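Subject: sequence -> structure tokens, single chain

Hey, anyone have a minute? Need the predicted structure for the following. Not urgent.
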Amino acid sequence: MVTPPLAAVPDLEHELDWLYGLPLDEFTKARNDLAARLKRAHQADAAAAIRSLRKPATVAWAANQLARHKPAQVATLLETGEQIRETQQRTLAGEASADELADAITAERTAIRALLTSARSALGDRGTAAILDRLGQTLRAAAIDETGRELLQRGRLTEELSAIGFGPLEAVKPARRRGDEIARAARERVTALRAAARSLAAQARAADDAAREAAEAAQILQEEAAQHRVAAERAAQELAEAEQALKARR
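Reply:
Had a minute. Here:
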């Protein structure tokens, strides 16, 4: 009896959503298994297309996880990206101020910071500063690029994206705003350094106290040792005298 071919995969889009949602180390095997199922179902073209899919880079995988587990945050980011594009066009037409564009860019950065906070738990040990920085760049690029927006929204990124920026328009952000950001960063650094200095000073005081206590304890022990030494010498002298007296009686 001839076994009939497997039925066609009923919902390839659903299969792809499942594939890109897997843990990173399970992607390759699952992709190959899906391609094999398609081939057995006589869908050679689909099987070849699936097998050619590249395993997502770590940064792309993290972005895909955010799309699945933090869709509201991703939606907020995409909204800020659209707002930037719209405000940029209005600025070019003389219908929006530099402050409006600066505010839109600030909103985008806030959305990215929220997503990076969420990404730390998903990445675990992979979440190094460099990876998070590249993830931030990918999210920013996806927010302003049509193809990137769609891939991020569907959670199907495979590569990191690079933001090309906004050219001269980003430079029209008021110097006062940029100065405020620099000043705020400087204040934050001073605060962190001040806290570190206080902590180190406290540790130094504790070490000094411990050293002083150790020195005092050592001095006491030395004095006790000297007293015991004198007592031992006295006892030895008394013993010698007693032995001498005993010999004289004999």
